[in-house]
Amino acid sequence: MISHRKGNAQRISALDERAEALHLKRDMGIADARAMHPSIDIVEADPQADRRLLEGLADWCDRYTPLVALDATDGLFLDVTGCTHLFGGERAMLDDILSRFFHQGFDVRAGLAATPGAAWAAARFASDRIVAGGEEEALLAPLPLAALRIEPATRTSLESVGLRTAGAVMAAPRAPLARRFGASLLLRLDQALGRLDEAVSPRLPVAPLSVERHLSEPVTLTEDIERLVGMLAAALKIDLERRGEGARMLALLLFRVDGAVSRIAIGTSRPMREPQLIQKLFHERLAALEQDIDAGYGFDLVRLSVLTAAAFDTQQADLAGEVTDDGADIALFADRIRARLGDGAVLQPVTVESHLPERAVATIPFTEAPRRTTPPKKPDRMQAPMTIFPPERPIRLFRSPEPIEVPATEMPEGPPLNFRWRRALYRVMRAEGPERIAAEWWREAASDEAASTRDYYRIEDADGRRYWLYRQGLYGGSQVPPRWFLHGVFA
Amino acid sequence: MAMTAVARETVFALRRQIAKIEGTLPERLQAPAAAAPDARVDAGPSIDVTIVRRGVAAALPDAFLPTGVERLDAALSGGLPKAALSEIHGIETRDAGAVAGFALSLTSLILKQTQGLPVLWIGTSEIFREAGFPYARGLHASFGIEPEQLLFSEAPKLVDALWVAEEAARMTALAAVILEIRGNPQRLDLTATRRLHARAQSAGRPVFLLRQAAEPEPTAAPVRLIVASAPAVPRDTIAGPLAGSIGRPAFTLTIGKSRTALPGQFTLEWNPDERAFDERRGEERAKNPVAVVSLSGGRKDPAAASGAVLAFPPIGSPAAGDQPPQGQRAAHLGPRRAG
């Protein structure tokens, strides 16, 4: 029995058959139930866990149709339009769903109808019924008002005027109903009867292409899965070729026998359709996920879907039959690294127009951007002299500038004579600078510490190592004394 | 001195003998497979192949990356092997700037030949945190490597970094691979380096293994160089060297291991404008540069002091034999011209 807190008291939110046999009811206070039967077992409700379970079930139902939607906290909508023939008809499919759920240990009610509303009613009030198109009215007429998916308040007021079944509501004149009980009642009624279309919003976007294989004997070995991926990719290739496209994002869904679903997605830098390459990428991904994927009793359905596709430009091979494209090699290499180590494993620097050194270069995950192949253009003579003689920049930059201790400077605004960095003392032999870099006032607030001006010095220590230091803030300018940082290293 | 020369001759003679017995050239000097296209090998020895012989060293002419410094190239018998794993060591983590700078200058030399190909720099998160992340603007300014040509790979674990490096080492679409590791991890043993070396050999691309704060240990790399930074000379201006300024990057290079070279020490200077190395000969600058060029100035011509000609060649210099005559040296030590 499961309790939850409702209206300042612990009440029963769900109970099993044996508890029902003890004449316990929903919404009964826990104290009352305990008084009646001191030995009952009560568990606190956990809505998050229920939600996760429902989503897991929805994942599993993906095997029947890609259009699966969650319905409140205790239901699933499956849009099986055009899918039933794959499972041998509507009845066979419904039986298959019910028996598989039963074997997984779930007590499931299902209904199948032409409209979501009628299916909802059929599942809850006429167990396991298949309602043919046009029979919705006959189905709903004898059912209680709850079958119409209406608010409890509306339901009680309908009952108070003597309308106790859906049939009675259908028979009543529409205009007074709408006036008295609001438009939602008629909307629900029309949706259930198929007079209005009701959209079921699926949880996941539908993949434009997917191929799946049902296995009579579940597979457990990673090698078998990889081989299956190769076969599925070969089947995908035909479709991709017909559409003139290549896959940019692929997902592999592994349906375990006991209902758990693993979803493995990979991205590619350029559109891809070669089965070997796709298999290689999944090889890396599966190798990385080895611990996370629990094969258990094996997977009985493997599906490979193309989540995003893009136009594929074919390349002409040269006479020797070899396509020489270094870019493709690198794209594939980057894809493999990323499949195994995550998206940030291959980075690419991008220069940004900014005076602040740490902002002037951004590193982004590798993308197949149009890489420059022509040599860069010479600096324009009309450009500012700054760019003709660019200031020296270090070859390594610390992610966050490291604070250093500067005991003394020759001049108040000058470079330090010596400094302590990572507990070691460095003597400054020579120094160049300062190069003053002001903060970007359009980004930082003036009160912000990062907004103070920096004076950069390029210094060399006694052993010939060259560093880039800066002093943040000015002497005498504000109450806060300036602080020194080491920001980068020169060659 | 004579003893050294005799010992060297003996070693070379023995090597030649071993090579004759084994019927192969010494391993270090073997032409890499990628450098010699298969067709040539299949067709037998009648096909024209140019082989460069320098003493016992014999190889295809483009198997080596000449550094452009004659003395160093001669010591390495032609330069660094182009299709191989090369180790570049730094004694301490704070030398990371010099070590990375030297590797990047080699990369820059390679990029002169293979234009447009990208460079991949792999490092563990640890080293990027300790020594700083490569800064694309600085790399462009100092080594002429375009940001578009750069790829970085940061792996949280050494195993992953090694895996990426192995995958990258066999790519012909990369101009060079730089793998940066800190310390002496157990995973980076003889086997791991041998795998890297074999892949680099078959792809014909160099792999630079940067090891910060590491002790030398047996690896498969044919060459190990130990790099430290050297005090830079002042900047050149039309009016002569500018006192107190910091000029071009300079490195002190020690050959830690090479199958042909004797241990030696070189001071190289990188010219970012021409993207070439210069060697700094003799002891132009004392260990402590302040003694020569003081910050406070006061001297009229600091360059004269820094260019003092020594009366005797430095004792123990490995290549004392090829010190140029006095007149030449004095000319060499004169003020440098920019460019």
What distinguishing features does this structure have?
heterodimer, A: 491 residues, alpha+beta, MutS, DNA mismatch repair protein, domain I, Dna Ligase, domain 1, 4 domains, six-stranded antiparallel beta barrel, four-stranded antiparallel sheet, 15 helices, 17 strands, 31% helix, extended, B: 339 residues, alpha/beta, Rossmann fold, 2 domains, nine-stranded mixed sheet, two-stranded antiparallel ribbon, 22% strand
Describe the structure.
The complex is a heterodimer of chains A (491) and B (339). The N and C termini of chain A lie far apart (71 Å). In chain A, helix 9 crosses helix 10. With 491 residues, chain A is of the alpha+beta class. Chain A is extended, with a radius of gyration of 34 Å. In chain A, 31% of the residues lie in helices and 27% in strands. In chain A, the strands form 5 sheets. A 6-stranded antiparallel beta barrel of chain A has the order 12-13-14-15-16-17. Chain A has 4 domains: 2-45, MutS, DNA mismatch repair protein, domain I (3-Layer(aba) Sandwich), CATH 3.40.1170; 48-193, no CATH class; 209-317 and 332-340, DNA polymerase, Y-family, little finger domain (Dna Ligase, domain 1), CATH 3.30.1490; 396-489, no CATH class. Chain B has helices at 2-22, 38-42, 70-75, 96-113, 125-131, 136-143, 158-169, 190-203, 289-292, 302-306, 326-332, and strands at 52-54, 57-59, 64-65, 80-81, 85-90, 119-124, 133-134, 150-155, 176-182, 207-212, 223-229, 236-237, 240-241, 250-257, 265-271, 276-279. Chain B has 2 domains: 63-279, Rossmann fold (3-Layer(aba) Sandwich), CATH 3.40.50; 289-332, no CATH class. With 339 residues, chain B is α/β, with parallel strands linked by helices. In chain B, helix 7 runs parallel beside helix 8 (190-203). Mean pLDDT of chain B is 76; it is low at 23-47, 284-295, 297-303 and 317-331.
